[in-house]
Amino acid sequence: MDLRVSGVEKAYAGQQVLSGLNLSLAAKDRALLLGPSGSGKSTILNIICGLQSPDAGEVTLGDETIVSASGMANADTVRRQHMGIIFQTLRLVSALNVEANLLLAQRLQKGAVDRDLVAETLERLGIADRAQARPFELSQGEAQRAAIARALVVRPDILIADEPTSALDHANTEIVAKLLIELSEAAEATLLIATHDDRLKAHFDRTFVLEQGRIVS
């Protein structure tokens, strides 16, 4: 599905974070949003995902408006039906083991579970042996891969990731980058990754550079 960010602005306590930001991805595109900490990456991802409203501008996915300056009434429905999200704060349910977290995501977003897909995704991310572990029993890298698996198992139309490799060493960064690309291609999903991790540039043909709330290249 096509993603379009048009003229988005956002300020906190009088400080401008995003300034007339424009970004567009065609269906099945795969791109990086690259920028240092404090450049506005997490803010624009939250707006794209319908978790915050912009002060100006709008975000659309296909023919549907996710959010605009006038509101975000459609956001929950669009997010549930079309998005897989990998948050920087991982948001795994602490009372559930890894497998149950993934099954819950499928049930909430798709209304059904696919245990084979859950098992396959955990295997490919190298954490099949941690399926019965709860989040507090995981290393930081394992928890991050579990959060990535949770976003992938709902077979999203658009996969959005906020710093998905920040806790990973070089070998696991390579694995995760290739898997995100491979599975988004298999699902014919649009992929957008926000990161400060220059290691990912080698895997993407399209890179948007964010500086001081604007796309500069």
Explain what the structure shows.
The radius of gyration is 17 Å and the shape is globular. The model has no long low-confidence stretch (mean pLDDT 92). The chain contains 6 helices and 10 strands. It is of the alpha/beta class. It has a single domain (3-215), classed as P-loop containing nucleotide triphosphate hydrolases (Rossmann fold, 3-Layer(aba) Sandwich), CATH 3.40.50.300. 32% of the residues lie in helices and 28% in strands. Helix 3 (98-110) runs parallel beside helix 5. Strand 4 and strand 5 (64-68) form a beta hairpin.
The share of residues in extended strands comes to: 25-35%
- Look at the helices and sheets and give the structural class: alpha/beta
Number of domains: 1
Instruction: Give the overall silhouette.
Output: globular
The biggest sheet amounts to:
6 strands, mixed
End-to-end CA span: 23 Å
Helix share of residues?
Answer: 25-40%
- The CATH class, by name, is Alpha Beta
Task: State mean pLDDT (0 to 100 scale).
Answer: 92
Low-confidence stretches: none
Q: What is the CATH homologous superfamily assignment? A: P-loop containing nucleotide triphosphate hydrolases
Task: Calculate Rg over CA atoms.
Answer: 17 Å
Number of strands: 10
**CATH third-tier fold name:** Rossmann fold
Can you give keywords for this protein?
Rossmann fold, single chain, alpha/beta, 217 residues
